[in-house]
TrEMBL record, chain A:
Tagged with keyword ATP-binding: yes
Family: Belongs to the ABC transporter superfamily.
InterPro entries referenced in this protein's UniProt entry, alphabetically: AAA+_ATPase, ABC_transporter-like_ATP-bd, ABC_transporter-like_CS, P-loop_NTPase
Protein name: ABC transporter ATP-binding protein
Keywords, in A-Z order: ATP-binding, Nucleotide-binding, Transport
Presence of the UniProt keyword Transport in the record: yes
GO MF term (any one): ATP binding
Occurrences of domain ABC transporter (ranges): 18-248
From TrEMBL, chain B:
Record keyword Membrane present: yes
Transmembrane annotation, as ranges: 85-111, 117-135, 156-176, 182-202, 209-227, 239-257
Name of the protein this chain belongs to: Membrane protein
Signal peptide: none
Keywords, sorted A to Z: Membrane, Transmembrane, Transmembrane helix
Length: 272, 267
């Protein structure tokens, strides 16, 4: 059990944990996120989209790693722009990047502890929080193994452990299920549901089945814009047998994308 | 005034007497939480059944604790210190700095006609370490760290402090035999560190460090080696100007700290 802090029981004055309006984010010179409107509350949200849709760039902007090039972004009611103090928001953030670098000579415990220290957790709470997050991702037996000796799936889980060590209010996971075996993926979905009861979790993935199984809400982006947002059930109803995919949700996903592309092409023709 | 529950009430509470109404049970429970004496009395009135339950819970807890790995205590050892302050990526650069300083000291001993090489390169000594202290290509975990509250200024200053804590003693040792003033070695060293941080908010710390190294090499080291005399800027009477410049640069760098809050495109 962990103690409930005063911050957690305080009344929230913001309607959305993540709120983006007309958000623009650059990846290099290219605007990878271009005019995205997004409002996410507590729960597990799945971020779906084809390659190059701007998922990773969006995650980076939400993690406050890159500054938005335009538009507005607020996390837990704090505006996140170039000038504001990001420390209070960053303390409540958990982030697993798509390709996360690590120090190979650190053990799992040292690595998660180092990240907890950087997240400015109270010094006395760190050892217990580190142990708890390592237990939650099922790495207890490997807690004192060096990171360079771990397999890909275990590294991924160590990455998830560092993301959840500070009990984040906003948890951003970019492709967290890559390298996990089927059993671990089931455990991971369980963990997501658990965290999603009182935090805002955004999971970027290209596996539609993960989204359907673990998410309460689906966010579909394409070419840097929000295409569709709704529950997994509604997503499944969008497609029919004529659309590509092996499951109703996959068919719904391809149906929405196809419809969106057709509309975009029409708009382009109308402009020409 | 606190009224303690009577022994009879505690006995009935311990026995789980259904005759005890719910508000009384709550009152006793709340009181027990804050009163050690009554808890001791409660322990005396527990029934055989509840003692057996406690025994069973204790045994199974002991068994589970024995089966799971022992939790790591607080280990404030050298390894934690090293991991937190001297991230592995800094070590090769610090080793290189030490090697260059050692070479410079050796050169000063062997080649007596020249001005002290240690004195000439002292301002540049911390720059390689500072340049890699907070740079995305130098730190494998930069993206993880960039999303933490300690990112940017805190991390940069922490690592700069670690670099200085290494470089300053190294300089003192290398310069001990040369007879040059210690102030003239350490003050320019601090001034250049502050200048690198200050310029770093504009063009990125790495570029700032490279620029400063290039300018100092071309403008001071090369001419003074060619002329074989101590340059004017490092003459004994310039120590006061260096102190002033150091203070000014540090103050200016502190005013520009906001530039490091986010990983800029320079880094």
């Amino acid at each position: 059990m962990r103690a409930v802090s005063a911050v957690e029981t305080a009344a929230t004055t913001h309607p959305w944990a993540i709120h983006a309006e007309d958000l623009q984010v650059r990846a290099g010179r290219h605007l990878a996120v271009n005019g995205l409107d997004l409002a996410l509350a507590t729960g597990v949200h799945g971020l779906l989209g084809p390659n190059g849709a701007g998922k990773t760039t969006l995650m980076r902007a939400l993690a406050t790693v890159v500054a938005p090039a335009g538009g507005r972004l607020a996390l837990l009611g704090h505006p996140v722009d170039g000038r504001s103090d990001l420390r209070p928001v960053r303390r409540t953030l958990g982030y697993l990047p798509q390709h996360f670098g690590f120090y190979p000579r650190f053990t799992v415990r040292e690595f998660v502890g180092y990240m907890a220290w950087l997240k400015e957790m109270p010094k006395a709470d760190i050892p217990a929080a580190v142990q708890r997050s390592i237990d939650r991702v099922g790495l207890t037996a490997k807690a004192d193994a060096r990171l360079k000796t771990l397999s890909g799936g275990m590294l991924r889980r160590a990455g998830i452990a560092q993301a959840i060590v500070n009990d984040p209010r906003i948890l951003l996971l970019d492709e967290p299920t890559v390298g996990l075996d089927p059993e671990q993926r089931l455990d991971f979905r369980e963990l997501l549901r658990d965290i999603g009861t009182d935090s805002c979790v955004l999971v970027s993935t290209h596996l539609v089945e993960d989204v359907v199984a673990a998410c309460t809400d689906v966010v579909l982006v394409n070419e840097g814009r929000l295409v569709w947002q709704g529950t997994p059930e509604v997503l499944a109803e969008q497609g029919d047998q004529g659309h590509a995919g092996d499951s109703p949700a996959e068919r719904g996903y391809s149906a929405i994308l196809r419809r969106h592309r057709a509309e975009a092409a029409q708009r382009k023709e109308a402009l020409a | 005034m606190i009224t303690h529950p009577t022994l009879a009430q505690i006995d009935r509470y311990a026995a789980g007497d259904p005759g005890l109404d719910e508000p009384s049970v709550w009152a006793i429970e709340v009181h027990l939480e804050g009163c050690a004496d009554c808890r001791a009395r409660l322990a005396g009135s527990t029934t055989m059944d509840s003692r057996a339950v406690i025994e069973r819970v204790a045994t199974s807890l002991d068994r589970e604790i024995a089966a799971t790995p022992a939790p790591a205590g607080r280990s404030w050892s050298w390894s934690v210190l090293r991991h937190r302050w001297l991230v592995g990526t800094l070590l090769p650069w610090l080793a290189m700095t030490a090697a260059v300083l050692a070479c410079a000291a050796l050169l000063g001993v062997l080649w007596t006609g020249l001005p002290s090489v240690v004195l000439l390169i002292a301002p540049l000594a911390p720059l390689p370490g500072v340049a890699v202290a907070w740079h995305r290509r130098a730190d494998p975990a930069w993206e993880l760290i960039a999303a933490t509250p300690a990112a940017g200024l805190t991390t940069l200053l922490r690592r700069t402090a670690a670099v200085l804590a290494f470089v300053i003693p190294a300089l003192a040792v290398a310069g001990a035999g040369t007879g040059a003033s210690l102030a003239l070695m350490l003050l320019p060293c601090l001034a250049f560190t502050a200048a690198a941080l200050l310029l770093g908010t504009l063009v990125g710390v790495r570029r700032a460090a490279i620029g400063l190294i290039a300018i100092w090499t071309l403008a001071v080291i090369a001419p003074s080696l060619a002329a074989a005399r101590v340059p004017v800027v490092l003459a004994a009477e310039s120590a006061r100007s260096w102190a002033l410049a150091t203070a000014l640069l540090i103050i200016m760098a502190l005013f520009r700290v906001n530039g490091f809050r986010r990983l800029s495109h320079h880094d």
